[in-house]
Amino acid sequence: MSDALLDRIAATQNLQDLESVRVSLLGKSGEITAKLKSLGSMDPDTRASEAPKIHALREQVTDALTTRKAALENAELERRLAGERVDLSLPAPQALQGTVHPVSQVMDELAEVFADLGFSVAEGPEIETQWYNFTALNMPEDHPARAMQDTFYLEPRDGEAEPRVLRTHTSPVQIRTMEKTPPPLRLIAPGRVYRSDSDATHTPMFHQIEGLVIDKNITLGHLKWTLETFLRAFFERDDIAIRMRPSYFPFTEPSAEVDVGYSVDKGRRVVGGQEGWMEVLGSGMVHPRVIANCGLDPDEWQGFAFGTGVDRLAMLKYGMDDLRAFFDGDIRWLKHYGFRALDVPTLSGGVGA
Amino acid sequence: MKFTLSWLRDWLDTDADPQSIADKLTAIGLEVEGIHNPAEALAAFRVAKVLTAEKHPQADKLQVLTVDDGSGEAIQVVCGAPNARAGMLGVFGPPGAYIPGSDLTLKVAAIRGVESRGMMCSARELELGEDHDGIIELPDDAPVGTAYIDYAGLNDPVFDVNVTPNRPDCLGIDGIARDLAAAGIGRFRPRASAALPGGFEPDPKVIVESGSGCYVFWRRVIRDVRNGPSPDWLQQRLKAVGLRPISALVDITNFFSIDQARPLHVYDVKKLKGHITARRARAGERFMALNDKEYEATPDDCVIADESGAIGFGGVIGGESTGVDENTTDVLLECAWFDPAAIAATGRRHGIVTDARARFERGIDPMKLSSAIEDAAQMIVELCGGEASEPRISGEFPAEGYPNRDNVVPYRPARLAALAGIDLPVDEQRAILGRLEFLALDPKDGESWLNKGQQQELVEKYDPASYWFVRAPTWRPDVDGEADIVEEIARIHGFEDLPSTPLERGDGVARPTATRTQLMERRLRRTAAARGLDEAVTWSFVSEKEAAAFGGGDWRIANPISEDMKVMRPSLLPGLISAAQRNLNRGASSVRLFEIGRRYLGDSEHATLGLLLTGDRTSRDWQTGKAQDFDAYDAKAEVLALLDAAGAPTANLQVFPDAGPTWHPGRSATLRLGPKTIVASFGELHPRLVAEHDAPGGTVAAEIYTDAIPAQRSAGRARQAYSPPALQSVVRDFAFVVPSDVSADALVRAVRGADKASITSARVFDRYLPKDGDLSLAIEVTLQPGDKSFTEAEIADISRRIVAAAEKLGAQLRS
């Protein structure tokens, strides 16, 4: 009897058939239900011998139904899935990827390196008075650097004694900071600067970064260490060599130009090594008159300052060769030389990307 | 500043090779920008003897020579020079040598069937002169086989030194030689000048007006000169340093300018009218200068004038009318001293760059006038003949002050280590100063070269236990303080062994240094990049037209390099529009740009983020179909995301339609915190602006005024305790028919305000505007129960209040 029942279950081809078999066996008026019902009318001996058989049969049938149901469901799913194929080689919706400009990236890198040396980032106006841009920096009225060919002058405004200028360097930030923040000071001041110059290697606007340390007992030796340390960290190389040469800037005394050693790699100058020298920084001990101009006593406070081009540092580190492209906004260039949003320079992860 | 090695050796006794000299110059602050030896191009040419000369078998005008170039071989050369003959000495170029005058490289070749293995050269072929009538003939004692450049003394490298503006003395070769000697390269050769007796009073007279800009004017007249070409040695020197020989008299003045940084001027006495005056120019005075340009002087210019008027800008450029020429017989030699500031101003005002200006504006040694007038007169008499007058001086230096001829600087030797970090014994310091002709007096030594009163004054002010008194030479007007003396010693000692001294480090890890603004800017930048925008950096200046379209600029540049860069930008958008246009012209289909920079307004400079979206928002795609354009909501999405990243309280922002004349009036808005504080504008650009500026159509843009974003109140790092609501929220939808002048934002605000405690969010999820029908907005309202679930009655009550709030705006619940 049981074999026949099981065969019937196994023979079903879909879930509907299986359900009708289940009803015919286990439903209200099903065959097995009827057998179970018949137990009540049996005498105790017969019941004692028949009950286990009937229960076992019911168990067997229930298991068979469950198994068959699972099998049919699986078959059904397989059949459906066979029709659900998509071509995943088709393009997915495009994710946008923007970029951070190299100048911004390098400024972030510089801020990170100098933060570790205890330098904060200071800012100042780009439209400057001649006092801050020149006079306070020991460039008196008739100094050649004030000549029209270098400096952008603004049209004078009513009530102003002399026209303002577009700052020609970030050095005015030195003065502004010294005036309002009591020393000791360690700061960098990055930002836009302007010179009326325009050719392959000069643009009328570019970026500089200024460094300033004012303290007691600061010497050229501290300047040398600071520049070496900064350049090694920034260029992520230990073989950075620098060479300081006496030079002249009105706002420092003694003054030094700083050359960095380079090597040639695949025809391109790479910072590091000593195959040749290239000039990258101007620096020196802050001129006593500049310190006095900020209301500090030059016999008590002294320090060093340095300045360099941010765009230039970017070019040396990341290999661009045309400054003008920095300010064109060409998205091809930006995608090529720009940085991803999450390329945040950190000391633990490295300040380069 | 250019000079040759041989000229340097006039002032410096040295055998050092050119590279060592260059390295030392750079090391002491006289940066060598290049060493160039023009003779190197002629290195292959040798002194050679013509052994035999026979007629060429095939050509009448040619000869076949055999030549000995020192190798001992007889080299066969075909030569066309009429003066070639057996026994003569000349200059031979072997195969492979480059002939600059003919621009060709010699090869072994057959000339009319006869092999020629080199060439005997003419002066023109070697660019050593104009002579091309025959080959160079050398004296019989010329050593055969020697390199010709060595024999002829042509092997003379030219140094090009970048002289910093503080070193007028190094615009003369004597100054450079002195510095080199001080740094241990050779021995300085001072040149004694001998007085040249004068035979008569110089005429014309010279009057120096006080306040003219000219202080002192020495003069001499030399009569009966012949002003032909100057001798070869002088021409060669001037040419080597890039000056064109003109005539003996002019070349002599140029010689002193280079040799000793001592500019001079010569006038043709016969062309002068009456006496000479150094004075301020009269308004409108004009003269033709030696550069063939006419100048109109201003009353701020110092001119040299005769009775005809101005005949030159003193110390800058002379006049054509009184210049010397080949017919000059009587010459007036001027050796003067002009105020550097006046010279610089005149040079700048008229755009004149001359060697004289460069020297005068940096400061000429005021003590060199009397010796220079002797030396120059001497050279004129030697080269041009004639008879010299007595030297006479007009004007005078002020007894005290400027120019400072007694420049004494108090100096503490200990400052060398304190400022420069270089530890040098006092003896060495003193020796270096001495070699630079700075005289260092240690008052403890007792000896004095100061006058008594001066010394007394100094000793009272500066403790003699620690101070020296250093008198700077008169050719160093830059020296005016202790730091200058430190620099002199440090520079001559050299920076090579500067110590590398670490800055003191604070305890623990480095402290954060970024300010709130800096952090905000970083977050804005990286959020924008993460959202797919590319960061541009565009010019801070725009054209007048661009500025006008964006409200007008408050700052104009007086001397712009072009009209496109005339006005400081009042907005970041013009720069981004131009950049976008360039990108589209290059074929870009979608441009998303942003820039973080400043707007330059009358009151101050405002930190701003500008962004611009143009081209396709999405390109055509198999899933989304045709390419889609940007609309104002795209700009809004960027603005809100960025403001959120910047920490602005975005929930409190209100939308005010129409962001102003730059924008499409119906498709732009400002975002404000309260009615006054505008933190951003966004939307479509005004179609008129788009048309006038050739901006790409369909451009949407935004500006975030980052300096208007208020600081977040800082409550420390710890967050508020986490307390999620115990009960689930309830969502109810409301659909309203809304009058056309009511904004979605106003409706949502009204709805939210209906029950601030229970309503946690209200959001428009559908908008329906049938043709000729009324606008409907559907709003999803989220209600958050507190500690008890809402009853039906409570929900009904809130709903009633929501509807009532909407009705106040004229909205009706849709039936």
Describe this structure in words.
The complex is a heterodimer of chains A (353) and B (815). Chain A has 353 residues and is of the alpha+beta class. Chain A folds into two domains: 2-82; 102-337, 2-Layer Sandwich (BirA Bifunctional Protein, domain 2), CATH 3.30.930.10. Chain A is 38% helix and 20% strand. Chain A has helices at residues 2-11, 15-26, 31-38, 44-82, 102-116, 130-133, 172-180, 220-235, 288-293, 310-318, 331-337; strands at 120-121, 127-128, 165-166, 185-194, 205-215, 242-249, 252-265, 268-271, 276-286, 302-309. In chain A, the strands form two sheets. In chain A, strands 1, 4, 5, 6, 7, 8, 9 and 10 form an eight-stranded mixed beta sheet that branches. In chain A, strands 2-3 form a two-stranded antiparallel ribbon. In chain A, β6 (242-249) and β7 form a beta hairpin. The model of chain A has no long low-confidence stretch (mean pLDDT 91). Chain B is elongated, with a radius of gyration of 42 Å. In chain B, a hairpin with a 3-residue loop joins β37 (663-673) and β38 (677-685). In chain B, α1 (5-11) packs across α4, α6 runs antiparallel to α9 (369-384) and α19 (744-753) crosses α20. Chain B has 815 residues and is an alpha+beta fold. Helix content of chain B is 25%, strand content 26%. Chain B folds into six domains: 2-37 and 156-188, Phenylalanyl-tRNA Synthetase, Chain B, domain 1; 40-151, OB fold (Dihydrolipoamide Acetyltransferase, E2P); 206-395, 3-Layer(bba) Sandwich (Phenylalanyl-tRNA Synthetase, Chain B, domain 3); 409-493, Phenylalanyl-tRNA Synthetase, Chain B, domain 1 (2-Layer Sandwich); 516-708, 2-Layer Sandwich (BirA Bifunctional Protein, domain 2), CATH 3.30.930; 730-813, Alpha-Beta Plaits, CATH 3.30.70.380. Chains A and B meet through α5, β1, β4, α8 and β6 of A and α7, α10, α13, α14 and β30 of B.
